[in-house]
């Protein structure tokens, strides 16, 4: 039996505190699509656990091992799944619930890409404009207020 993705995911915006730039990743399955770290929750997994796992899988950053502060925005959005990605979900699923997190880092790292074609460190405005995902763009845009609070 085919296993479909759970329609609940995380979005983790990684940004560098010293350069005020954020990390953007180019998808393998759609090279025109750039995004922050994102991934579906697994069964019995909490959003924070998913965020930690996905950051490691997609970038090689070990949040726990490096004692980094993963900030839970305590915010989630529900959005319509892009048509080109719907085949990964059960046929009746059209919406996904996404939990937002932020990961501040001190320096821009070179990620170990396993699920993406390329990466870029971009200014907040450049990154927000690059992504095709309105919610990813909004989350990136919120970094300005987040930076003032940390």
TrEMBL record:
The keyword Hydrolase applies. Residues 5-144 form the Nudix hydrolase domain. SUPFAM superfamilies: Nudix (SSF55811). Substrate binds at residues 5, 27, 38, 79-82, 133. Keywords: Hydrolase, Magnesium, Metal-binding. GO terms for biological process: AMP biosynthetic process; ATP biosynthetic process; folic acid biosynthetic process. Pfam families: NUDIX (PF00293). Gene3D superfamilies: Nucleoside Triphosphate Pyrophosphohydrolase (3.90.79.10). Its cofactor is Mg(2+). Mg(2+) binds at residues 54, 58, 115. Binds 1 Mg(2+) ion per subunit. The keyword Transmembrane does not apply. InterPro entries: DHNTPase (IPR003564), NUDIX_hydrolase-like_dom_sf (IPR015797), NUDIX_hydrolase_CS (IPR020084), NUDIX_hydrolase_dom (IPR000086), Nudix_hydrolase_domain (IPR051325). PROSITE patterns: NUDIX (PS51462), NUDIX_BOX (PS00893). GO terms for molecular function: bis(5'-nucleosyl)-tetraphosphatase (asymmetrical) activity; dATP diphosphatase activity; dihydroneopterin triphosphate pyrophosphohydrolase activity; metal ion binding. This is dATP pyrophosphohydrolase. It comes from Gilliamella intestini.
């Amino acid at each position: 039996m085919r296993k479909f993705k759970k329609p609940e995911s995380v979005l983790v915006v990684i940004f560098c505190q010293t350069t005020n730039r954020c990390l953007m990743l180019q998808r393998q399955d759609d090279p025109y699509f750039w995004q922050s770290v994102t991934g579906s929750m697994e069964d019995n997994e909490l959003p924070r656990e998913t965020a930690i796992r996905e950051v490691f899988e997609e970038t090689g950053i070990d949040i726990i091992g490096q004692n980094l502060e993963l900030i839970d925005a305590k915010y989630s959005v529900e959005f319509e799944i892009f048509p080109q990605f719907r085949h990964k979900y059960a046929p009746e699923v059209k919406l996904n619930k996404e939990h937002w997190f932020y990961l501040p880092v001190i320096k821009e790292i070179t990620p170990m890409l396993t699920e993406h074609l390329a990466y870029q460190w971009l200014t907040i405005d450049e990154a927000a404009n690059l992504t095709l995902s309105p919610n990813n763009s909004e989350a990136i845009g919120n970094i300005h207020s987040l930076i003032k609070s940390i």
